[in-house]
Automatic annotation (TrEMBL):
Annotated function: Non-catalytic component of the proteasome.
Subcellular localization: Cytoplasm; Nucleus
Principal cellular location given in the protein's record: cytoplasm
GO cellular component, as recorded: cytoplasm; nucleus; proteasome core complex, beta-subunit complex
Keywords for this protein: Cytoplasm, Nucleus, Proteasome
PANTHER family: PROTEASOME SUBUNIT ALPHA/BETA (PTHR11599)
The name this protein goes by in its record: Proteasome subunit beta
Recorded family membership: Belongs to the peptidase T1B family.
GO biological process, any: proteolysis involved in protein catabolic process
SUPFAM superfamilies assigned to the protein according to its UniProt record, in alphabetical order: N-terminal nucleophile aminohydrolases (Ntn hydrolases)
Alphabetized CDD domains for the sequence: proteasome_beta_type_4 (cd03760)
UniProt keyword Cytoplasm, yes or no: yes
Coiled-coil intervals, chain numbering: none
Organism: Nicotiana sylvestris
């Protein structure tokens, strides 16, 4: 009995390979700063479906291993893929059982290589990442974009935060800031983003990492004031306005 001929696709062997052409559910800015005892990260919990604020409880700050803290802007499902890869990396490292563990610099290098690798395949992960950590008393803070552009600094921001929050941080940040002062500065930046970024929501988390470990706050809201005269009639005085 002859076997049935194998079906062959007219589209070729790569017909089933798909690329993410456009991000669907996205998160907005992440802000990170160093302070006296470690690193602080802040992000709101909004998830935008296109231009619609569809989700209001998306957590975008996650711990990575013992010494690192990760925040992400951009496509939420791609962030979940990055976290899955990091879980495998940390598990593989733990299996050595050699008394050592990956620090934030190693994790940042890994993320840089992963983002650049996906970019070279024309199938990028649509995220901008902020990676902070503390190991052996050394504070570390860096960022990496969806095409692998990366750097370290005392304070970093993604998305609109890179335009609206960074000027505030440049004016007010100090290397010896206390935890309370760092949180106050981050809340000021997040309030400005709430006023000016349509993708931001008034529900945020602030995470800290020190030698003792990672602490991520419960979600909370900021006190806001919307009765500024410019908010009441934003087109007043505009040429050609109705």
């Amino acid at each position: 009995m002859e076997s049935a001929p194998a079906k062959c696709s007219l589209l070729g062997p790569e017909a089933d390979i798909q690329r993410t052409q456009y991000p669907y559910v996205t998160g907005t800015s992440v802000i990170g700063i160093k302070y006296k005892d470690g690193v602080l990260l802040a992000a709101d919990m909004g998830g935008s479906y296109g231009s619609t604020l569809r989700y209001k409880s998306v957590e975008r700050l996650k711990s990575v291993g013992k010494h690192s803290l990760l925040g992400a802007s951009g496509e939420i499902s791609d962030f979940q893929e990055i976290l899955r890869n990091l879980d495998e990396l940390i598990l593989y490292d733990n299996m050595w059982d050699d008394g050592n563990s990956l620090g934030p610099k190693e994790v940042h290098n890994y993320l840089t290589r992963m983002m650049y690798n996906r970019r070279n395949k024309f199938n990028p992960l649509w995220n901008s990442l902020v990676l902070g950590g503390v190991k052996n008393g050394q504070k570390y803070l860096g960022t990496v974009s969806m095409i692998g552009v990366h750097y370290e600094d005392n304070h970093v921001a993604t998305g609109f935060g890179n335009h609206l929050a960074k000027p505030i941080i440049r004016d007010e940040w100090r290397e010896d800031m206390s935890y309370e002062e760092g949180v106050k500065l981050l809340e000021k930046c997040m309030r400005v983003l709430l006023y000016r970024d349509r993708s931001a929501v008034n529900k945020l988390q602030i995470a800290k990492i020190t030698e003792e470990g990672v602490t991520i706050s419960q979600p909370y809201s900021l006190k806001t004031f919307w009765n500024f005269s410019a908010f009441q009639n934003p087109t007043a005085g505009a040429v050609g306005s109705w």
